[in-house]
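[job 4471] stage=fold_predict status=RUNNING
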Amino acid sequence: MEVLSSVLSLLSTHWVGTLVICLVILFCYWGIAPYRRSAIVAQVGDLPGPPPLPFFGNSLDLFRYKGQMHLQFDDYYKKYGRLYTTFLASRKPSIVISDLGMVKELMVKEFQSFHDRPSAVKLPKPLNSMMTSVTGQTWHRIRTTLSPTFSGHKMKVMVPLLNKSCDVLVKKLQDAEKSDQSVNVYKFLQGLTIEAILSSFFGLESNAQTDENDVGYVAAKNAMQRSPFLRRILIFVSLSLPGGKYILTLPIFDRMIMGNFLKLVDLSKDIIKVKKEAAANGNASKDFLDMMLENTDDTNLPEEKRLTEDEVLAQSAIFLLAGFENTSNSLSLVCHHLATNPDIQEKAQEEIDSIWSDMDQPLSYDMVNSMNYLEMIISETLRLHPPVVIHTREATKDCTIKGFPIKKGTGILVPVYSIQRDPEYYDNPDKFDPEHFSAEAKQSRDPYAYMPFGHGPRNCIGMRYVLFQMKMFLARILKQFSLVVGPETKVPLEVQMRTVLGCGKDGIQLRLKCRH
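[job 4471] inference complete, writing structure tokens
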């Protein structure tokens, strides 16, 4: 008591007391002022939305939903409608837009006002140069440089490499089928996808499917295994403290948040070193990475049009990660849906057999492109389980969308998961039904009711490659095997939001049955 009395006496008689009181008042004002109703209305207008808490906004809801953001925003969608406000990743309110007419305007017609994405966390170098996070002319320069990589001609060249990786997968699945045990298809597909992207995009031989210690496989897999709890706590700091996103760029926090991802950058550095040595010896393979390196070294290009070394590193890392995690997750979910819907699987196999009748003939680019029902299956899987559940944009200037004013600096959130499960656009929206993507169904539906890859100039640059790769991998699997539910298979399907929306940490257990 004597100590407490002394402290109170000091605060009441000394200038320190005045300073402390002022700081407390300022801290309380800082924590309360942005979340007052009058402040929200002044920023985004009189919109409904979940009530924010002082200091935290709506960030605590993410903990309540155990990090499952798609479920959090789906509940918001049902409660507050297609235009509301919420506090996420900022002390400023964001506007959540689900009205498809407004979505089209902000992604296409008014793209010049919404070409950037907001960022809650200031990424360390070189990750701050990823095409997904850069802004303005930097984004445009990188996008323009990389777009030719995904032409039809480039993908045709990749087909023999993809077939080679599939040959290894088929052999592994044949061995697994003989054991009469369930297989974790997610684990098999992780090895396939990282091996395929290393060979087709980076021109490197990989043994990711046969060697769990393969450096590419280990780096990509570890990049997905940061501590979820630690990551949430540290990102929460960045959302709640003034300047938090800059504090988190300090080296100690860099490694705690992004450590394993930075190991993927280290792998990219090693790959670039090998590729540069090959190019110096006249052995460049003219793949994705070679093209970026040529752009970096091309002295005929003005400096403002070249890629920097950090930009090459960042794009290499993000393509490794996206090609590994997104594709393996989505393919695994497709496999589960086919196993639990054998009639749909049989129809897909009939299409594959009719197009690819001679197994002595390699599966070709044109064959894969003509497998329309297989693409319907993939599209339906991506409708139910979009890897990215929310698309984000930021207003770069004051503008008006369908009569609604939006101020410069306002974050925009488009809840993809909820839109793609809206019964207004899809009959039985929670049912797996590839007929949602028949020609007739697509023609009768607003195209913006389906956007796993986004829309407009800032859509996913690798969309065509991803769809082609998934179709090819599935065609190779379904030509040889039927996917069957076993005692270990979890039904209904369990999905989990980690880095992307996909299968849970235990993967997907299925049984295989040889067709030939």
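[job 4471] summary: The radius of gyration is 25 Å.
[job 4471] exit 0
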